[in-house]
Design goal:
The complex is a heterodimer of chains A (186) and B (270). Helices cover 68% and strands 0% of the residues of chain A. Chain A is mainly α and 186 residues long. Classes of the chains: A mainly alpha (186), B mainly alpha (270).
């Protein structure tokens, strides 16, 4: 009887200490990756759960190195499945979501900044977008990203430059919008 | 170039901060998903899946006019979450308790920075070198295993899902939730099922087993012929959790509900 499993015998659980440590350490990373890979926000929990189901199943095959590299591959495949599955439920969510933080919603400028950067990223090719997100959001180096996506560090640096220029241009264009907003709310 | 304009740089910094905040996991999601993993994959090979999965005593069995097939479907629909899931979650509750520290050798594997030299791997498993992170977000692997997100905002309804699975309070909360859901499953007749689910909803409105509560509740509504209520509940569930495996189970166990939803969908598209 599972329920009668004695305390202190964690080895008998399918969720080993190793799994739980990995889960705790990388949960937020996997979550953000699902958003990055375009999983609709309200489905991220399910997608993250699926990632860790795969992780659980394949934990024995993992060599113990580079958890992020390993998880990145799994997360990308899971996200792809989720996007396909959710397409019929959910076409419009791929568009820009509203900020959910009420404090944020009260700040027009922040809201516009967020919209702008999300729109700018959505308009980028996957390569530069990934380089930007993994650098700026995940704090990874060009070399780390290069290994993750199987490209050279120079390529990553170039993609990052392109992404930054694109985002910066979008943010520069925001000037006019913000001024109009201020006038209309002032 | 716009990116070298200090004003644009400041804006870039701010927008990245906002984006990062926006992509932070939802409060409670980390513990909730872990508990669900305990429920779905936590069954031990020798008993998790079959232990207690027999069709006796399930919610709604023998419902008047429902017919044995219908009752069996409901039992089947809830069996996975109850016998396997809840059984495993019971185990989870034990494991979430004040357990001994994880084996350093094993947990270190998830947390230790990768070695500087590594054998060649396939592209997706290519090693990430231990280059230090100089960017704002620290490497997740440096987080202590049981940490809770620092930016989580507290808002405490009656009882919420545990926030730190390393405490005995967590184990107590999970065990209490489990007991309520199991009591609902074992109750005789849909009315009794719902009474117990109401207790769960009062105590754990956002509990780890809220989805399972909704499944049982919907099926109980269905069994007592309250299809409007069942449909409303199912719709709300599907809206929130469209890709949950419980959706299929819910619809499969209540053909009338599935028929209604399908008809409504067709009307919506027609």
């Amino acid at each position: 009887m599972v329920g009668l499993m004695a305390r202190g015998t964690p080895a008998a659980s399918a969720l080993s200490d190793e799994f739980k440590a990995l889960y705790r350490a990388q949960f937020a990373f996997v979550w953000r990756l699902q958003l990055h890979f375009g999983v609709p926000e309200h489905q991220v929990e399910d997608a993250v759960q699926d990632v860790f189901v795969v992780v659980h199943r394949r934990l024995a095959d993992w060599d113990g190195r580079s958890p992020r590299s390993w998880l990145y591959g799994i997360a990308r495949r899971v996200a792809s499945n989720h996007r396909r599955r959710s397409a019929r439920h959910q076409r419009k969510i791929e568009a820009l979501p509203e900020p959910r933080d009420p404090a944020l919603e009260g700040r027009i400028e922040d809201r516009e900044l967020l919209r702008t950067i999300e729109a700018a990223l959505a308009g980028l090719d996957p390569g530069p977008r990934t380089a930007f997100v993994l650098t700026e959001i995940e704090g990874m180096s060009a070399r780390e990203i290069a290994e993750l996506v199987d490209a050279s560090p120079n390529t990553i640096a170039s993609r990052l430059r392109k992404a930054r220029a694109h985002v910066a241009a979008a943010l520069a264009e925001l000037d006019g919008d913000l001024a109009r907003n201020r006038r209309s709310h002032g | 170039m716009a990116e070298h304009d200090p004003r644009i740089e400041a804006r870039m910094t701010r927008s990245v901060e906002l984006l990062r905040a926006r992509r932070e996991p939802r409060m409670g999601a980390e513990d909730r998903i872990l508990a669900q993993l305990e429920a779905t994959v936590g069954g031990t090979p020798d008993g998790g899946g079959s232990d207690g999965a027999g069709p006796q005593g399930g919610a709604g069995s023998g419902g008047a006019g429902a017919g044995p097939l219908y009752a069996a479907k409901i039992v089947l629909a809830t069996a996975t979450l109850t016998a396997l899931g809840l059984g495993a979650l019971r185990l989870g509750a034990v494991l979430l308790g004040p357990s001994p520290a994880p084996s350093p050798a094993r947990s270190a594997r998830a947390e230790a920075p990768p070695p500087a030299t590594a054998p060649a791997l396939t592209p997706t498993e290519a090693p990430v070198d231990a280059a230090p992170s100089s960017q704002p977000v620290a490497d997740e692997s440096e987080r202590p295993p049981a940490s809770v997100h620092g930016n989580a905002k507290a808002s405490t309804p009656p009882r919420t899902a545990p926030e730190d699975s390393g405490t005995s309070a967590n184990a107590d909360a999970v065990a209490a939730e489990l007991a309520l859901i199991e009591a609902a499953r074992a109750a005789e007749g849909p009315r009794a099922v719902i009474e117990r689910l109401e207790a769960h909803a009062r105590e754990f409105p956002e509990g780890l087993l809220a989805d399972e509560r909704e499944l049982l509740w919907t099926l109980a509504d269905c069994e007592r012929g309250q299809l409007d209520a069942a449909t409303t509940r199912a719709r709300s569930f599907i809206e929130r959790r469209p890709s949950s495996p419980l959706v299929d189970r819910m619809l499969h166990a209540c053909p009338e509900l599935e028929a209604r939803m399908t008809k409504a969908d067709q009307a919506g598209h027609g």
